[in-house]
Amino acid sequence: MLRFANLMGIALGTTLTLSPALAADPLRVASKIDTEGALLGNMVIALLENNDYPVENKLQLGPTNIVRTALLENQIDMYPEYTGNGAFFTDTVDDTAWKDLDKGYEKIRQTDLEENGLVWLPPAPANNTWAIALREDLAKEKDLKTMEDFGKWVSNGGEVKLAASAEFVDSEAALPSFQQAYDFELSQDQLLVLSGGNTAATIRAAAEGTSGTNAAMVYGTDGAIQPAGLRVMDDTQGVQMVYAPTIVLRQSVLEANPKLEELFAPVLDSLDRETLQELNSRIQVDGQPAKQVAQDYLKENDFLK
Length: 305
What we know:
The chain is of the alpha/beta class and 305 residues long. It has two domains: 27-127 and 242-300, Periplasmic binding protein-like II (D-Maltodextrin-Binding Protein, domain 2, 3-Layer(aba) Sandwich), CATH 3.40.190; 133-232, D-Maltodextrin-Binding Protein, domain 2, CATH 3.40.190. It contains 13 helices and ten strands. β1 (27-32), α1 and β2 form a beta-alpha-beta unit. The protein is globular, with a radius of gyration of 20 Å.
């Protein structure tokens, strides 16, 4: 899984004029290889270049372990990351703090600063974690918005068939946790188990009604959710770990360039779940380059001077 909290009270749409500290070396910006990583990484680069910081582009560097190692070994200076991955970085997966945005963020912020000299900026109000999405027409008809609504509807005989991966169905942290928390149970006849964990396949199955499916395993900010006509059911009890996107950078870099947090904060604060779904959709569904989508969004919202 490649997986952003009120930030600094800066109004959305504020244009910042910042002067970077003089530096001999460019800021090395990386990202993971997924769609959202490319989107967020291109936002970081566009903001830096627009404010006259020299930049070295290392986007799409690799999966989480590769990019994280590069940051720890001073091969890069910053990259977009998710709070939930702090559970794996600190080997504390069973800690319930990771199911709360603020607690999880504070835990990894303190730990990484003290142990590794890394700074986690306040995250965006979005959560790219496992979720269940229902066809929008059905959700509207039955007034279903949350997993509590979904659970009651299923328990009362609601006709649902969920497209999901074997991992989602079998992992205690996924569907079984949802079923226990929201008091419902899906029989084998109510499941379409697909090989692999590709949410593009589960979303397509629900959208097209493959084998009678009308619900899908998704990640919360998947770009295909909105175009497919699906609605994410809100996890009101915090069953899943929160994967809120943010930017992680070296403490020495922030100390040398103290206005970076002020530069990134309002942009992160603007990226809620629906906004990221729409932006990811431009890339995944419409085929637009991530760089173009990132720059267009920043321009549309006056984040570039």
